[in-house]
Amino acid sequence: MDVMNPTLINIGGRCYRKMPFTQKIEHHSDQVSGQHYEEDLIWEDEACDTVESVEKTEQGYRLSMEVPSSLFKFILGKRAETKKKIEKETSTQIMIPRQGEEGDVVITGPNRSGVVGARSRIEVIVESSRQKIPFTHFLCFPLYKSNLAKKVDEFKVRVLKDCFECRGIDASIFQLPSKIHVTVGMMTLLSDKEVKSAAELLSKCYEELVSNCLQDTAVVVELKGVEYMNDDPAEVDVLYAKVLIKDGSNRLQNLADALVDKFVSKGLMKREYDRVKLHATVMNTKQRDNPDEQAPAKKSRSDVPPRFKKRISFDAKKIITLFEDFSFGEYHLDTIHLSKRGSFDAEGHYECAASVPLP
Asked: What pLDDT, in 10s, does the model give residues 262-272?
């Protein structure tokens, strides 16, 4: 790491420099004056701004942080070692709600610099820990259309009939028609407040974006042909239908990119690519039934949890050739959804946490 150009991390509207070393702060006094100089020390987790106020108390300083309860364990660390280390090096006390309880993380200490330093370290832990938790929500253009369901079923029947000999082809890896959508971006929202913030941002920004990106004109797309998401068509995990806007413009692409920009700027989404890849998944090996039965025989390990078992890809070369011009139909994209992963309504669609209309 270049010490002169350290990694910058944006958290909660603030920018931090992530330094590659640990600086331990020792309690010491000036031998001449006998006064403590701890307040003047520079912490390695230095915030580029300190908008958030720290409360002055009779005992020193106090600060409360809103942290989803599912992330408390990362702040504590094994046997609370992470928490103890931060407390020792910043001369603070960190109070975390008990397991199963909701509430703020409270930091107290005799010096403002220590409290701010502890906060910045905890925020870096919280931000990095989110990456270890599966996505919970996503922004999308839903394609819950009856005609699309018929086309997807037709595609499935034809693939199973014409490509049955291809390795890894199985009925279970086809996407259910009730779940098909055009993904814009994925999010990890770990509390009701975070979900509400995402919903409010979508509501606040969409009118401006629709006007600027879509010119208040309806978007009609055709799903035509199939593509894969890796470099080898013989080893495919995800196959998707290509999304083509009928007027040939970039209006939909511009809207998707602008939405991601808004959500990334508010810390609700991570940028994965420079531009959104507009696609509608039609086959996904993550859904495969009994993947172990199709995997090559290997020495088993009883200590490997099921969730870590390797996905079994499929050979898509013949599908790509036979269905390069297959049309799944034309559709008007009429809404943007904030959808919840793994949760479905009575019709089998992803549960919608918030939505806004499109022209």
From this structure: 999 998 998 88
